[in-house]
Amino acid sequence: MNTPSxxxxxxxxxxxxxxxxxxxxxxxxxxxxPPTLATQQIAQxxxxxxxxxxxxxxxxxxxxxxxxxxxxVRPGMVALDVSAGGGYTxxxxxxxIGPSGTVYGQSQPRDxxxxxxxxxxxxxxxxxxxxxxAAPPRTSxxxxxxxxxxxxxxxxxxxxxxxxxxxxxxxxxxxxxxxKLDLVTLxxxxxxxxxxxxxxxxxxxxxxxxxxxxxxxxxADHSGRPGTGISESGTLHRIxxxxxxxxxxxxxxxxxxxxxxxxxxxxxxxxxTPNPPQPKDEFVLKFVKP
Length: 290
Hints:
Strand content: 15-25%
CATH architecture: 3-Layer(aba) Sandwich
CATH topology: Rossmann fold
Structural class: alpha/beta
Strand order of the largest sheet: 3-2-1-4-5-7-6
Number of strands: 7
Number of domains: 1
Largest sheet: 7 strands, mixed
CATH superfamily: Vaccinia Virus protein VP39
Shape: globular
Distance between the termini: 46 Å
């Protein structure tokens, strides 16, 4: 054995490691993005006096302060709220992201030649007080436009809200399709994609392509029992958490956080409206594009 040769080789290896470390230290750090909103900032957004009474009622069961903190909203983000509906989440994102960003609210266009797929049972609310009955907006795009006008009239420093009418199979506008988004949310509607027979694999793949590296995909939904998958989407309006996670991870996403602030272990998860009356057990998952 040539001991001096081994020592020399080890010395060279150590020297190369030291040199690499010194070079790394000399390289400039990547520019830091804006920090996520502080708890106090989020509380002020939720408490904004110009928010509607209907949205404030929804706050009782939706816990928007915990949700915005979990999402990790930052000023200047470009975000897409999939299945925006009436725009409750879309508006909160716009308020939190601020005027240097943009929020898109997606809804599926109506086909005048086909009846919209309907669930076997209507979706129930939770044990918290429901929003006052009101005439629903004609379309999601109409609701988002009304929210945008109201924010501008109140001089709220919010991100502009852009309504997007696209099928769920490919919900991302072409201009955002290749790594332009920082955030995608899908709140309490992933289960509906089951009875609607949406190609969820295609949808998740499109969302994956649209996000920047390090971008987040946040999904919240009503928890179903193990083994039920998405089979109860139109009856109990629930989805099995592990089933959803497997579908999303199949697109390339990695789970990075689980939110427990909407959990209710007492919910048996075997009915649309829990009995005795109580909030549904709900999960919130945050995925990242590696």
